[in-house]
Structures are given as structure tokens and as C-alpha cells.
Give the backbone structure.
Amino acid sequence: MSLFLDDDRSNRLRPAILDDFVGSLLNDVERARHLGLPETTRIRERAKIISPEQLTIGEHCWIGENTLLDASGGLEIGEHTSIGLNCLVFTHSSWLANMMLENHSGSDLIERKPVRIGRGCFIGGNSVIMMGVTIGDHATVSPLSVVTKDVPAYSLVSGNPARVFQRYDQDHIRTEAERVRAANRARRERTQPAPPDSRTDRPDGQ
């Protein structure tokens, strides 16, 4: 007796199961190519996409380990956005199917609403984005947050449910970027080997 069922649902799910298996053998860039994502996408081990045909994702995005992207209701992720480890992004809910005792495959009580995550966003690890939410450009979601409503652009949200704790602008971002660049320059200079002493670099030591 075959272990594999030959019905419509099984045959529909099989390619995604094979993608998960093959993806476990690839690095993050190879995995992105295998899944048909932009060449600049880095998608880490055990990340999963539900309904990838409903996903629109920009260039230079990073998806962390064990993150689930449910695109069944439509999911858009802007360029240069990172979604951390163990995050859950939902675009559907089976709540009514459970309440009505109709939680069977193909139930018409599955509700779907699209999620949009803007460009230049940072979604911290272990966060949950609920269906129907729009996260504005350059927004930050702190780790361990549950986002249940729209997030304004240029804001930091945190908590369960997440709420706005800080607003910032491009000047603030540029100032912080220069601070970090300066710190990294100083660190590199400290760790670079000293140039050879010209007085001792000659064969005669003179």
C-alpha cells in the first residue's frame, strides 16, 4: 500500500512539501532562487511561505529562520525590509470555522485579508502580524510584538497589542546611520594591524 495519497488536496500540497525539503539543503540565496524570489532576497533555514503565488516582495529583503509568511490572503513586502526569526505573518483566520464547528478543509468560513509591509521596515524576532494590517514605510516592530492594527510610517511599535512608542524622521535615521558608521570605522581601525616600522623594515635595520 502506498504511503502517498493520490487525491486533489495531496497533489496540491505535494510541491510545497518538496520545496521545504529541497530548501533545507540550500543556502539563503539559493533558497530564494528556488522559490522564485528576487535574486537579492535572503531567506533563512526553515522559513516557510504559504501560497507563494500571492506574495509580492521587493529587492534586498531578509527573512529569518522559522518565520512563516502566510500569503494566502495577499502579502506585499517592500524593498530593504527584514523580518526576524520566528515571526508569524497571517493573512487568514479560521476563527469562525472553529466557532461554527466547520473547521474542515475548504471551509467557506476562512476569512482572508491582505497584509502590506512597507519598504525599509524592521520586524523584530518572535513578532506576530495579524491579517489586514498595513505597516508603513520605515517602521520598526520591536521583538515579541503582536501587531493587530495599522502601523504608521516612521514609527516604532512594541507590545501585545503593539502600540506606538516613538516617531522619527529621515534626519533621525541619517544621524543614527552616521553614528553607527563612525563606530564601525573606529572598530576597524583598532583591529587593523599596524603598518611596518620603516626603520626596521630595511634589511640592515638602519
